[in-house]
Design brief:
- The protein has 506 residues and is an alpha+beta fold.
- 16% of the residues lie in helices and 27% in strands.
- It has seven helices and 28 strands.
- The protein has helices at residues 2-9, 88-97, 162-171, 180-189, 277-291, 317-328, 492-505, and strands at residues 27-30, 41-48, 51-57, 59-60, 67-73, 83-84, 100-106, 141-149, 152-159, 193-199, 205-207, 210-212, 216-221, 226-227, 240-249, 252-255, 260-262, 267-268, 296-303, 335-344, 353-358, 361-363, 380-381, 386-388, 390-395, 411-412, 423-425, 478-479.
- Strands 2, 3, 6, 13, 15, 17, 19, 20, 22, 23 and 24 form an eleven-stranded mixed β-sheet that branches.
- The relative contact order is 0.24.
Length: 506
């Protein structure tokens, strides 16, 4: 049903201003006559039986004036059907499942062998073991409902005539994209309602000058588990990043209608990656996609209440409940968290993403061997999920070796103690993508055709200029904290309309 509706709604995507909007389903309208745009999309979906709970966080880059999101919806929505979430929960999920950088030190070869204590799991499960409501009657526009949810002032409209709706919105001070009226026409003819979520910027949290809007959560029932993301491609300014986190009871998910590939993991990298983990990971992702065009990349599949190593503590039962366990009727334990990363342009995405259950895998675990090599390479089938994108920096013993039979290659924390936490690669959609992958690696990566220390400029990676790692830039887009994310809601409002449509028609 969602697929059929997607085809019907695809025409609604319109461009705001001078092509300044990224992929968005429905459209943004600004009261300032200024362009607004968003960047990348992150969603958290919970799936249990035929029920899907979808949460999305979105932001905008633009002037400090009110703006709104206008989206078609099939019915008049009530306040109870719209819920906001704390933005911190998205940061928690992103940090937990993001690719991580760890560091190990060779222990004193002359000391008795000491096995390193397990890193904190952060959970009980050890996966290594198991107001603008002006009446518009003269224009054929009716305000069906209005309410406030968080910073959103929501108005539900019906219209008898598309030009009347266009005029009503303009009369209310919104700069509607040129050519919107013909696109609105079929929806008005079908009796579709229009969800206008006005944002009051006086009530919006700002981080570094950027407005961070509260995530919205909704749920619906559908036999098909899918994410309608292709509606906004006419607005695309280039490559878009979509990160989908799926929470399901003991189950990993992958896409059914695109190729799947696991991110290369357990790579030993140079110490330069410490300050440039974001560019390093972006180069690895780009190279992976160059070898597997159009694929969706699995970056994480692990029990949500556990992690090893942990850039942030694992999800609590309360957080899992907030993300949907309360409406799927499930105990908030035993959920697997899958992270899927899709990077696409307007010519790449032919259809919406459809998900399917996938068998468990492991990868990105373990300690280096005596030669400083990671013994567990890639993803392997297993009885439980414990896969992560993990990258390792190694420090050889630099002290005196004053014994007859030194034991080399025993790895653990730093000699001085105080082991640093893993670094998570987040917001990689925004980093400089000219970094050279080979220059970061200490060993060749045959599966991607990359030699350690080699340039990527002529190896089929998409024609990037090989500029090498950026020097002195700090750890671009890396984080070990839990601050707000800089993700845009490229498909949020259309997903709202689609999801509720599916629910109401059942």
């Amino acid at each position: 049903m969602l697929r059929r509706l997607t085809a019907g709604l695809a025409g609604l995507t319109v461009v705001l201003g001078a092509a300044q909007a990224s992929a968005f389903c429905g459209f943004y309208v600004s009261g300032a006559g200024t362009d607004l745009y968003n960047n990348a999309t992150m969603v958290v979906m919970m799936r249990d039986g035929t029920r899907t709970v979808l949460s999305m966080q979105n932001n905008y880059d633009g002037p400090p004036e009110d703006f709104a999101m206008v989206v078609p919806v099939p019915v008049v929505l009530s306040e109870e059907e719209v819920k906001t979430l704390p933005d911190s929960i998205f940061s928690r999920v992103d940090q937990l499942a993001a690719p991580r950088l760890v560091e190990y030190w060779e222990q004193d070869p002359c000391q008795p062998q000491v096995y390193p204590a397990p890193m904190a799991t952060g959970g009980a499960v050890d996966m290594m073991m198991a107001e603008s409501a002006t009446e518009g009657g003269d224009l054929g526009v009716t305000v069906e409902a209005q309410f406030v949810v968080g910073e959103y002032e929501i108005v539900i409209l019906s219209a008898d005539d598309s030009s009347g709706l266009d005029t009503w919105l303009r009369r209310e001070g919104y700069r509607i994209p040129d050519g919107a009226e013909p696109v609105l026409r079929p929806y008005v003819a079908q009796g579709t309602k229009f969800f206008v979520a006005r944002v009051d910027v006086e009530r919006v949290t700002r981080v570094d000058g950027r407005a961070v809007l509260s995530p919205l959560r909704f749920h619906y029932d559908s036999e098909t588990f899918s994410l309608p993301v292709r509606l906004g491609l006419l607005n695309s300014r280039g490559q878009q990043d979509l990160i989908v986190h799926v929470l399901a009871r003991g189950q990993r998910y992958e896409v059914a209608n695109y190729d799947n590939v696991m991110i290369p993991t357990n790579l030993v990298v140079s110490h330069g990656v410490r300050n440039e983990f974001g560019p390093f990971y972006a180069s690895l992702l780009d190279r992976t996609l160059a070898r597997h065009p159009g694929a969706v990349v699995t970056e994480y599949a692990w029990d949500a209440s556990s992690c090893d190593p942990c850039p942030t503590p694992a999800l609590t039962p309360e957080e899992i409940t907030t993300l949907g366990a309360d409406v799927v009727g499930a105990d908030p334990y035993g959920f697997t968290l899958t992270r899927l990363h899709y990077r696409y342009g307007r010519d790449d995405l032919g259809e919406d993403l459809v998900f399917r259950a996938a068998p468990p895998i492991v990868g990105g675990r373990g300690m280096p061997d005596q030669e400083g090599r990671m013994t567990e390479q890639g993803a392997q089938p297993s009885g439980s999920n414990a896969f992560q994108g993990r990258y390792v920096m190694l420090n050889r013993w630099q002290g005196e070796v004053a014994c007859d039979e030194p034991r080399r290659g025993i790895w653990g924390g730093p000699p001085s103690g105080g082991e640093p936490p893993p670094i998570a690669a987040t917001n990689t959609a925004f980093v400089d993508r000219s970094a050279t992958l080979g220059s970061y690696l200490t060993e060749d990566l045959p599966e991607l055709g990359v030699e350690a220390g080699a340039s990527d400029s002529d190896d089929g990676s998409g024609g990037r200029t090989s500029a090498g790692p950026t020097q002195g830039g700090g750890c671009a887009s890396c984080s070990v904290g839990s601050g707000p994310l800089s993700f845009g809601g490229a498909a949020l409002m259309a997903l709202l309309g689609l999801a509720l449509y599916a629910r109401r028609r059942r």
